[in-house]
Amino acid sequence: MMTLRWYFDFVSPFAYLHWQQLKALPQFKSIAPVPIALGAVLHHLGNLGPAEIPAKRVFTYRQALWQARSAGVTLRFPPGHPFNPLAALRLCLAAGASHETVEILFNWIWRDGHAGDSAAALALPGAMLDIADVAAAIGAPSVKEELRRNTDAALAAGVFGVPTLAIGSELFWGNDAHPLMQAVLADPGLLEQGEWARIKDLPVAVERSR
């Protein structure tokens, strides 16, 4: 059985949408959800998130809504976006980062359109996860350290965005890449054939200016 890790951040509507597709996979129970801080990943790589680029922001939101509509998935944006997702990520880890935990928090933020940026905003889903003191849970040093470790491990694996499904050492990024993920899950040797294999070592033909 290949190791399957799903790197995500609650700030991403595409992660919420991809979660809906993952649930239909026969391998779903074997997928380990890995909460990471997307902002830290983007900062490390010197990138901006799509919502931080004014000309790209509304297009990105419309694309998310279109993908949701096409898939028949309810998607309602939280009160503000982008928002600071650290509270939701840490609550997820404090509750064990199980499939049930991820489901509850995604539904709270993206299905129902609630804020997920503070202990107060997450009090109700925290209660659903049997965490009475959300502020204490998300402020625990061990939880903060676990999120840092997850994010560092994601960077070490080559993750550059969310959602990303790692099938062994191969990374598949984005909700719209799901059909390719399915193909590789069905045929793990697919990427070692023909043109799939050749492009792995394709040289860069034009040197980037600095």
Strand order, main sheet: write it out.
2-1-3-4
Number of helices: 10
Q: What does the largest sheet look like?
A: 4 strands, mixed
Binned strand content:
5-15%
Question: What overall geometry do the principal axes of the alpha carbons give?
Answer: globular
Rounded mean pLDDT score: 96
| DSSP strand tally | 4
Q: What is Rg?
A: 18 Å
Order of helices and strands: EHEHHHHHHHEEHH
Helix share, percent? 40-55%
Broad structural category? alpha+beta
Low-confidence residue ranges: none
N→C terminal distance: 43 Å
Task: Describe this entry's structure for a reader.
- The protein is 48% helix and 9% strand.
- The chain has ten helices and four strands, in the order βαβαααααααββαα.
- It is globular, with a radius of gyration of 18 Å.
- It is an alpha+beta fold.
- The model has no long low-confidence stretch (mean pLDDT 96).
- It catalyses: 2-hydroxychromene-2-carboxylate = (3E)-4-(2-hydroxyphenyl)-2-oxobut-3-enoate.
- Its EC number is 5.99.1.4.
